[in-house]
């Protein structure tokens, strides 16, 4: 991910090398190149517009620095602004003070929710927590089994629908799972929910109903970083339909253009909290805006 963007930015900066001082025309030229590079990487138009405006404003107002040449100065400004659009600080999970912390997952089918439930389970265990995964995705025929498989791989308990505990009704399954977690003293409950291939009113309603029933501490919107320009509509639809407290980017290992990663925070105002970088359970970590900016500019 970001290979092309990385090359394009490097070539934009290269034109500034050896310049003693940047004229307004130099700044305009580099800003134009950065703009095209971001748009070609599928970053949302509104995000690019604001980003470029800040880069230009800061580059024009930059003091002549003793320690940085003009090219380095522009790179520093771009780095700072990338960190800003990626959210600034790392946002950590807010654990409940009393009783189990409930983390609900929402997103389109194929975004990587079920895989993420396993990854998050393993990660939480490594943080010293005792998580339980709840299989409330009853839409996809294999989703429950798939969650049981990843749960087993991660060594994490999975609560799956049984006859009599709400088979066919994801809201009841989620509620029963939470009750079971309380009874068995698990301190974090991860609720996997159904997605559809596209945005759909019934799906949103189901996710909203589950949310209302389990009153989660965190709702994580899971988004495939490869979906390109569709990221904006999808994120906005989930924000309106379910609302969420944080974002998880998946498939950051892909070779698509990665614009979703750079747009979703600004579009939704919600922090990116985790990133998935592969199919293995360990291909997962907390999201660090500064490290991601560093990778893009490396
Ligand atoms: P769900 O429908 O949202 O539950 O999505 P799944 O968890 O079933 O994931 C859909 C597909 O994406 C599966 O084949 C996963 O192995 C794959 N997948 C999930 N996360 C990642 C990731 O970070 N990188 C890659 N390359 N594949 C992923």
What is the terminal separation in angstroms? Answer: 13 Å
Q: How would the global form be characterised?
A: elongated
Estimated radius of gyration: 21 Å
Q: Could you give the order of the helices and strands? A: HHHHEHEHEHEHEHEHEEH
Mean pLDDT: 91
Low-confidence stretches: none
Helical run tally: 11
Strand order of the largest sheet: 3-2-4-1-5-6-7-8
Secondary-structure-based class equals alpha/beta
Helix content: 40-55%
Bound molecules: guanosine-5'-diphosphate
Count all strands and give the number. 8
Q: Which range does the strand content fall in?
A: 5-15%
Oligomeric description of these chains = single chain
Largest sheet: 8 strands, mixed
How is this structure best described in words?
The protein is of the alpha/beta class and 298 residues long. It contains eleven helices and eight strands. Strands 3-2-4-1-5-6-7-8 form an eight-stranded mixed beta sheet, sandwiched between helices. Helix 6 links the parallel strand 2 (131-136) and strand 3. Helix 3 (45-61) runs antiparallel to helix 4, helix 4 packs across helix 11 and helix 7 (170-183) packs parallel to helix 8 (201-214). The two termini are 13 Å apart. Bound molecules: guanosine-5'-diphosphate. Guanosine-5'-diphosphate is lined by residues 107, 109-115, 195, 250-251, 253-254, 276-279, 283. Its EC number is 3.6.5.4. Belongs to the GTP-binding SRP family. SRP54 subfamily.
């Amino acid at each position: 991910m970001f290979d092309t963007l990385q090359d394009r930015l490097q070539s934009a900066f290269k034109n500034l090398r050896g310049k003693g001082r940047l004229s307004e025309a130099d700044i305009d030229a580099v800003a134009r190149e950065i703009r095209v590079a971001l748009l070609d990487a599928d970053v949302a138009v509104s995000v690019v517009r604001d980003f470029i405006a800040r880069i230009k404003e800061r580059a024009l107002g930059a003091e002549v620095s003793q320690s940085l040449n003009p090219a380095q100065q522009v790179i520093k400004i771009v780095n700072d602004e990338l960190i800003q659009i990626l959210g600034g600080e790392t946002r950590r999970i807010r654990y409940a003070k009393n009783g189990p912390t409930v983390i609900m997952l929402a997103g389109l089918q194929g975004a990587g929710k079920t895989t993420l439930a396993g990854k998050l389970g393993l990660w939480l265990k490594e943080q010293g927590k005792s998580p339980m995964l709840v299989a409330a995705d009853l839409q996809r025929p294999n989703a429950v089994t798939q969650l049981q498989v990843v749960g087993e791989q991660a060594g994490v308990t999975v609560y799956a629908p049984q006859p009599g505990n709400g088979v066919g009704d994801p809201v009841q399954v989620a509620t029963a799972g939470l009750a079971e977690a309380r009874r068995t003293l698990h301190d974090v409950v991860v609720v996997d929910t159904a997605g559809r291939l596209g945005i759909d009113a019934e799906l949103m309603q189901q996710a909203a109903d589950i949310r209302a029933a389990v009153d989660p501490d965190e709702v994580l919107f899971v988004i495939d970083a490869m979906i390109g320009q569709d990221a904006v509509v999808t994120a906005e639809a989930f924000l309106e339909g379910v609302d969420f407290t944080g974002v998880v980017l998946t498939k950051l290992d892909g070779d698509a253009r990665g614009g979703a990663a750079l747009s979703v925070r600004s579009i939704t105002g919600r922090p990116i909290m985790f990133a998935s970088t592969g199919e293995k359970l360990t291909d997962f970590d907390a999201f660090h805006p500064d490290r991601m900016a560093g990778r893009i500019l490396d």
